[in-house]
From TrEMBL:
Its EC number is 4.1.1.23. Pathway: Pyrimidine metabolism; UMP biosynthesis via de novo pathway; UMP from orotate: step 2/2. This is Orotidine 5'-phosphate decarboxylase. Transmembrane segments: none annotated. It comes from Streptomyces cinereoruber. One of its GO terms (molecular function) is orotidine-5'-phosphate decarboxylase activity. InterPro entries: Aldolase_TIM (IPR013785), OMPdecase_AS (IPR018089), OMPdecase_type-2 (IPR011995), OMPdeCOase_dom (IPR001754), RibuloseP-bd_barrel (IPR011060). The active site is at K97. It is an enzyme of class 4 (lyase). Pfam families: OMPdecase.
Length: 281
């Protein structure tokens, strides 16, 4: 029987610490590594990160767009990276932020969450802004495959608040949209131990979130540390008691230390230590 994503993630967090390293091959990073902004540069960048960190870090989040921009050859690099990371015991959260009407959502889900798909990942980021219910095919397939989802709830970017903090006129409780997504996830994860597989994306940049119920019995993917200005020390104030379920993501903050493999590893280990110290893990 496949162990569900939430349980696998909890073990990985306990063993390797809760850090998620984002694999985001920005053109500017390729340039700073002395690489060309083409398929050869993409390949070198990606496998340098994979080889340096695959046995050390708990979770990896490749950003699909940076691979898609090179067409099918870029996607082939992504497929190999996913497979190498998973073979080395890392968990892969595919950051593709998919979201569509239910029948099309089913096809997106098959691309990333069907076990025999070339891009099968441990979890997928999804956008619920066609309505949470539109994600049902992805929720169902994730359950069947032992995979997980990370649903955009309160994103790290300043523009997110006009949507996510808007108050619903169709809700008798007058909740915000972000709070509604968190409530759906809490329902999805009810009764699961050690935690459920359906996570929320909640930015580490957002300051005090005590007006939101972050107790969803599932993981909270927290981007924003490093290049976007948040630090590991901010985590307890932002997440309160939910901090033990937080998976902080750092992309450029680690990647800028390449191409030297030791410098990449040292940076990831430093972030992992600072995060552990901040969250008391
Ligand atoms: O879903 C995400 O991963 C995500 C959500 C969010 O609210 N904010 C956010 O920055 N991200 C992603 O997290 C990564 C952050 O990268 P750095 O700012 O370089 O650490 C990028 O891949 C973003 O696409």
């Amino acid at each position: 029987m496949t162990i569900p994503f939430g349980a696998r993630l909890r073990s990985a967090m306990d063993e390797r610490g809760p850090l998620c390293v984002g694999i985001d091959p920005h053109a500017a990073l390729l340039d700073s590594w002395g690489l060309t902004d083409d398929i050869a540069g993409l390949e070198r960048f990606t496998f340098t990160v994979v080889e340096a960190l695959a046995g050390t870090v708990a979770v990896f989040k490749p950003q699909s767009a940076f691979f898609e921009r090179f067409g099918s050859r870029g996607v082939a690099v992504l497929e190999r990276a996913v497979s190498d990371l998973r073979a080395a015991g890392g968990l892969v959260v595919m950051d593709a932020k998919r979201g569509d009407i239910g029948s099309t959502m089913a096809a997106y889900a098959e691309a990333f969450l069907r076990k025999d798909s070339p891009l099968f990942s441990d979890a997928l980021t999804v956008s619920p802004y066609l309505g949470y219910g539109s994600l049902k095919p992805a929720v169902d397939l994730a359950r069947e495959s032992g995979a997980g989802l990370f649903v955009l709830a309160l994103t790290s970017n300043p523009e997110g608040s006009e949507v996510q903090r808007a108050v619903r006129t169709d809700d008798p409780a007058g909740r915000t949209i972000g709070a509604t997504m968190l409530a759906h996830l809490a329902e999805e994860n009810a009764g699961e131990t050690p935690m459920g597989s359906f996570g929320a994306v909640v930015g580490a940049t957002l300051g005090d979130l005590s007006s939101f119920d972050l107790d969803i019995n599932g993981p909270l993917l927290a981007p924003g540390i490093g290049a976007q200005g948040a630090t590991p020390a901010d985590l307890p104030a932002v997440f309160g008691a939910a901090v033990r379920n937080v998976v902080p993501n750092v992309s450029r903050g680690v990647l800028r230390h390449g191409p030297d493999a030791t410098a990449l590893r040292d940076s990831a280990l430093r972030y992992a230590d600072e995060i552990r110290a901040a969250v008391g893990a």
